Structure formats: structure tokens, C-alpha cells
Amino acid sequence: MNKLRVLSLSCLLLLGLGGCASQQIGSKSSVVEYLYPKEDAPVIQPSIPVLKLPIKLGVAFVPEQASLGGGTNFWTGRSIGSEGLTEAKKMDILEKIASHFKAQKFIGEIQTIPSAYLTPGGSFTNLDQIKTMYGVDVIALVSYDQVQFTDEGMLSLSYWTIVGAYLISGQKNDTNTLIDTVVYDIESRKMLFRAPGTSIVKGRSTPVNLTEELRDDSVKGFELSTNEMIKNLDMQLAAFREKAKQRPEEIKVVRSSGYSGGGGAMEWVLILLLGSLLFTRRRNKSIVGK
What's the predicted TM-score (pTM) here? Predict the structure, then answer.
């Protein structure tokens, strides 16, 4: 009877170890799948973009694709699978992106667009609808790809004691995250620039708290990759501004009536007026002194 109990317990432990051994889960979205969903679709030929300053910009996440992997945690009975990004977290990231665009003098109104308004495989037809609904001319499409790997280290041998599964962090977890922002001129179908951000989060966990640790690592991975993407976005915005100046044959810029972009003739008039006032003030002081 004792041998039977030991054998039964050993089988359960083997099943448990097998259930936690090595796994891969993930979630992703793709700008390519959103804009070019059909292989046999006619090739879209972009034209020269005509940007009207100040630019009316939209920022949105493209729809997610199916999650990768998943299963059930033997020790807790909870499901293991990538949860991706919640709508609240998406809007938080979009606000961060929007705040950096707002610092640019050539950017006017910015609209953060909820995911519900982007349909899977909607392509430029969907973008034309968004252009009409939100009154935007340029859109920043955000996508992501996150994969989490879980493997057992040597410490997983302690799981044979049962208590070890609760106390020993024998699971090695790696979370790889990519967030990419691609900016398109909707009318011309032309990609203007892109800014990626990546991160790698390494962690450990017990098999019992594996689900919670993976969730925490997922959130951290998105935060780190977003921060790197924001840094790259600043550099790409500066590079795009210079490109628009130096290559007018590739990007046409049209200024709306009343728009100065923080510079131009009006700025020089103000400088001359201030200079004149300063000169007059000093001249009056000089006369009084005499």
C-alpha cells in the first residue's frame, strides 16, 4: 500500500513537472497584417505625401492577432497564457506617444483613437474612415510583439518535496517585448518614419506563483520597451524634420493660412520690435546721463 502511494505521488509529481517544464506564450499585433491583409490584393502604390501644417495626427494600436501557446498550471489549476495589453494600458501608452508629438511645432491637433475603431485587416479603407471620423491626415500606428519563455532550472528538483514548489524559485522566465510605432500619411499611403523599442526582462518564480510573475514581467516588459520607443521616436522626429527640409521633392509641405510654426516673418518682426525698444531705452538713458 505504501509503495502504491509513493508510486501515485511520483506520477503526480512527474505530471506536475511536465506541465511546468518548458513553455512559450505570447501575443502580438502587426501593422503589415492590418494594412496588407491579403497576399493577392492589388499592390498599393504610395504617392508623394503633401503634409498640411500644422499636421492633424491620430495615434492608435492596430488589432491584435491570436495569442501564442498557453495551458494550465498544474499546481494552481489557473490558466497560463499571454493576456496582451488591456485597453486602459493601450490608452496610457498612446497618451505618452501623443505628448511627445505635441512638443513638435509642426503638429496641431492629436487624437488618441480607441482600438474598437480599427478593424482586423481593415487596411487603408479603414484608415480613410478614421480620417473622416476624427479629421486626421497622418496616423501613428502602434504594434507590439511579446513572447515569454519559461524553463526549469536545477532548483526545480526541489519540487519533489511538494514544499519546494511553494518556496523555491526554480522557474526561469524570459520576457522579450517589441513595441513599434509607424507613421503614415493616409492620403498618399506613404510611410513617413518608424520608431521601435525593445526590452528583455529576466525573472524567476516558483511554479505556484508562475502566473503572477509572468503577468508582472509582461507589464514591466511593455513599460521598458515603450520608454525606449519614445527615445527613438524623438530621434526619428528630428530626422524627419530635417528630411522634409532637405528633400522637398520627396515630401511636400504646405502651410495653412495663419500658421507660422513658431517661426517665419512674424517671429522676425517681434525680434526687431524688441531690439528697437531696447535701443531706444538705452539711448534715452544715455541722454539723461549727459
Answer: 0.74
- Phi-psi bin for 175: left (phi > 0), alpha (psi -120 to 50), beta? beta
Query: d(Cα 96, Cα 152) in Å, to the nearest integer?
Result: 37
Question: Rounded to an integer, what distance in angstroms lies between the CA atom of residue 122 and that of residue 41?
Answer: 13
Least Cα distance to 205 among 174, 171, 160, 175 occurs for 171
Cα distance between residue 207 and residue 22, in whole Å = 12
Q: What is the pLDDT of residues 231-281, one digit of tens each?
A: 999 999 989 989 888 988 889 989 877 666 654 433 433 434 444 444 455
Helices (H) and strands (E) in the chain, counts: 7, 10
Q: Which three cell numbers stand for residue 53?
A: 501644417
- pLDDT tens per residue across span 16-48: 444 445 677 889 999 999 999 987 667 788 899
Backbone angles phi, psi at 262, to 5 degrees: 80, 10
pLDDT surpassing 80 at residue 62: yes
Cα 238 to Cα 232: distance, rounded to the nearest angstrom? 10
